[in-house]
Amino acid sequence: MSVDVLQAKIRKLKNPSMVGLDPTPEVVPEHLFNEAYAQYGPTLRGIAEAYRAYCMGLLDELTDVVPAVKIQSACFEALGYEGVKVMQELLSYAKELDYYVLLDSMRGDVGNIAEIYAKAMFGQIEARGEIFCPYTCDAITVNGYLGSDGIKPFLPYLQDNSQKNIFLLIKTSNKSSRELQDLIAGDRVVHTAMADLAMRWSNGLFGKNGYSEIIAVVGATHPYDLQTLRAKYDRLFFMVPGYGAQGGTAKNVQHAFDIYGHGAIISASRSIIAAWKKDAQSDGRNYRAAARAAAEKMRDDILKFVRVQ
Amino acid sequence: MSVDVLQAKIRKLKNPSMVGLDPTPEVVPEHLFNEAYAQYGPTLRGIAEAYRAYCMGLLDELTDVVPAVKIQSACFEALGYEGVKVMQELLSYAKELDYYVLLDSMRGDVGNIAEIYAKAMFGQIEARGEIFCPYTCDAITVNGYLGSDGIKPFLPYLQDNSQKNIFLLIKTSNKSSRELQDLIAGDRVVHTAMADLAMRWSNGLFGKNGYSEIIAVVGATHPYDLQTLRAKYDRLFFMVPGYGAQGGTAKNVQHAFDIYGHGAIISASRSIIAAWKKDAQSDGRNYRAAARAAAEKMRDDILKFVRVQ
Fold first, then answer.
1. Are strands B130-132 and B184-185 parallel, antiparallel or unpaired?
2. Rounded-to-integer distance, Cα A48 and Cα A76, Å
3. pLDDT for residue B90 is more than 80
4. Residues of A with CB below 8 A from B148's CB?
5. CA dist B115 to B106, B108, B111, B174, Å?
């Protein structure tokens, strides 16, 4: 009933939004690089430590504002194992702070490889009786282009005893998503075929609020699709990326919610974490306060259109 | 002209096949775990070191048999950063041994995240003028469900000065690939729509043999599709997974090649790297010799149907 846990966290903070931690050299303030390089030199370790300080600052700042965070694995993988090490520690730290934690790694693989991946992300690795959980998260993003074989290995972890979710790409927020996802296939388009698969895989996986543990990723930048999909798939919880920097607005995303203001969470990354850059005078030392103000504004903007009961 | 380099390596060894290194607790022989655990304890590091020894043994053994290797990132990521560290070192080691090296990570993301990922895999990370290349590979696998926005960031690296390839999932080898990839969309199916996109993205990216630097992944388990796609997309080089353990045969995969015996490479993992397990008496100490024999047999079986000129 992880989807219920997510909904409960949203209701507790009265904020149906999620912040994406996507650190890059452009958004991390200079002083954090200076401090990290002073200790570790201008190395991959140094960059990773600057990312760690930056993300921990954001996580500390936003606990009472946002209920959920998304950690972008590509930003950390880009630094090799030293980035991955920091990412693992940030996942644990976010969980300790009681966030709902989504690891955004956009993988799609099949058969025994999907099993290995599911076990690493959601299960345990065993060595002579010793148990290890390298990644601490509530959910990961997955790509369903490969069909059931790529998704089924994750399903056992969506049961009550594991309490995990997968976020399945249905209709992504980027402009060229139409190239494949909007192709007409009989009486459906490809992305509704994917949503139909999500419903098929959801058998036995509905939480107490009636939503599936398989969460549908539907971009904020396609309000018409959002509306159509909401009407058609009333048992899929939506995660809506593309808010803010990518062009999605509070007015657009209101259609993701059900009549009780439930069933959706809106995700923003750059517009929150790099909010300090909007002030051309800022050297980034105020990045935490700027992120808090932006997250509060996003929440308030959404709540103008959606009443979270 | 990385696709030409791949073709040249295939011709040099007269072997159009690729071995997938997918280490798992089931396929790595016991004595390698014993040795690693003796030094590092039963830890994630211990498992990673056993994987390292196993993969290095296979890489050492097969240099004169197979021209290319595929390293499965999920197997290493499953161990957290200690697995990723070993994976990075194996990528470099495979390059030193002059293999064509494919990193199989099946990612698909968009916009600035795809850029970050492309830069990490194919480019350089910079810190105060210091340059780092965490991953040493010739190519990675990518998932095109998100459309052009997810692929375009990779294209600059496919030019002559970078010499990289991407392997784009077209029609995967698993049974349920039909659920989405075979949906009929107008006069095409979804996977031919993906192949059409591959051709569109290939503009200006054809090597001297006439094949695109965007390599098409088409499963060995669908011989009819393989034949149809070969006839229709004569400028796409095919990478054909699913040989051996998944059921693809030499007879099936012959259709992936052009009339000169070029334009394709067949990939096998488990049937080669776990060949020692076919002998119920083996304790795995012969895993290298067993892998060599299996790789040679696979080569010879394919060459019964295909003449590599």
1. unpaired
2. 7
3. yes
4. 176, 179
5. 15, 11, 6, 29
CA distance B287 to chain A (A): 20
β-pair partners for B238: B216, B264
Give long-range contacts, CB 8 A cutoff, 24+ apart: B28-35.
B28/B54, B28/B284, B29/B54, B29/B276, B29/B283, B29/B284, B29/B285, B29/B287, B30/B283, B30/B284, B31/B283, B31/B284, B31/B285, B32/B284
Of B146, B80, B272, the closest CA to residue A89 belongs to: B80
Only one residue has tokens 């490479």, namely: B265
What are B109-160's pLDDT values in tens digits?
877 889 999 999 999 999 999 999 999 999 999 999 999 999 999 999 999 8
Chain B residues in contact with A42 by the CB 8 A cut-off are 127-130
| Residue B210 vs residues A252, B101, B204: alpha-carbon distances, Å | 46, 21, 11
Among A174, A196, A271, the strongest candidate for a mutation testing the B interface, having the largest count of B CBs within 10 A, is A174
For residue A105, give Cα distances in angstroms to A241, B77, B106, B187.
14, 11, 10, 33
- Parallel, antiparallel, or unpaired: how do β-strands B214-218 and A100-107 relate? unpaired
**Residue of A30, A37, A43, A116 for testing the chain B interface, max B β-carbons within 10 Å:** A116
Taking a C-beta distance cutoff of 8 angstroms, is the pair B102, B138 a contact? yes
How much is the pLDDT for B106? 81
Q: Do B80 and A77 touch (CB under 8 A)?
A: no
Q: Is the pLDDT of residue B1 over 80?
A: no
State the best of B35, B47, B51, B77 to mutate against chain A, taking most chain A CBs within 10 Å.
B77
Task: List chain B residues with CB under 8 Å of A110.
Answer: 172-174
With CB atoms and an 8 Å threshold, state whether A74 touches B184.
no
Nearest CA in chain A to B217: A146
- Which of the four pLDDT bands, split at 50, 70 and 90, describes residue A247? confident
- Residues in B touching A47 (Cβ below 8 Å): 125, 127
Please indicate, yes or no, whether the overall pTM of this predicted structure exceeds 0.80.
yes
Rounded (5°) CA angle B224-B230-B235: 165
| Helix (H) / strand (E) containing B130 | strand B130-132
Q: Please give the Cα distance from B173 to A207 (Å, whole number).
A: 33
User: pLDDT for A260-298, tens place per residue?
Assistant: 999 999 999 999 999 999 999 999 999 999 999 999 999
> Measured between beta carbons, which residues in chain A are less than 8 angstroms from residue B134?
44, 78-81
Q: Determine the distance in angstroms separating the CA of A84 from the nearest CA of chain B, rounded to an integer.
A: 5
Which pLDDT does position A108 carry in this prediction?
78
Identify the residue whose tokens are 């070192």: B89
